[in-house]
Amino acid sequence: MIQHITTAAAWEAARAAGSYRGDTLESEGFIHCSEPHQVAGVAEAFYKGHEGLVLLDIDPAKVTPEIKYEGGFPHVYGPLNLDAVTGVRPLPPP
User: Fold this and answer.
1) Which CATH number is associated with domain 2-91?
2) Which of 7, 18, 58, 65 is the most exposed place for a label (fewest CB within 10 A)?
3) What is the C-alpha separation between 63 and 14, in angstroms, rounded?
4) How far apart are CA 33 and CA 31, in angstroms?
C-alpha cells in the first residue's frame, strides 16, 4: 500500500472530476505519495498546523499511471484513478 495526504476538499473535487490530480502533478510532474511508515514524517514536515486533511490508502496494483520510487518515496506520474483508492481517513493535524 502507498498513501497520500490531501485535503478533504481536494478529495471531494477529485471524486466529482473522476480522477485525482494533486497540486504537484502540474508543477512537478508527479503526485507525491508515501509508504505507511513515512506518513507521520511527511505530515510533520509539510502539513503541520493544517486542518481538514485526509489520508488516501492506495493499492499500487490498481494504479494505472506509472509509479516510480524516487528518493525512497513513491511518485505517481499521471492522474490517479479513483478505483485505486481503497480507503479515505481523516488525518489529525500534525
Assistant:
1) 3.20.170.20
2) 18
3) 15
4) 6
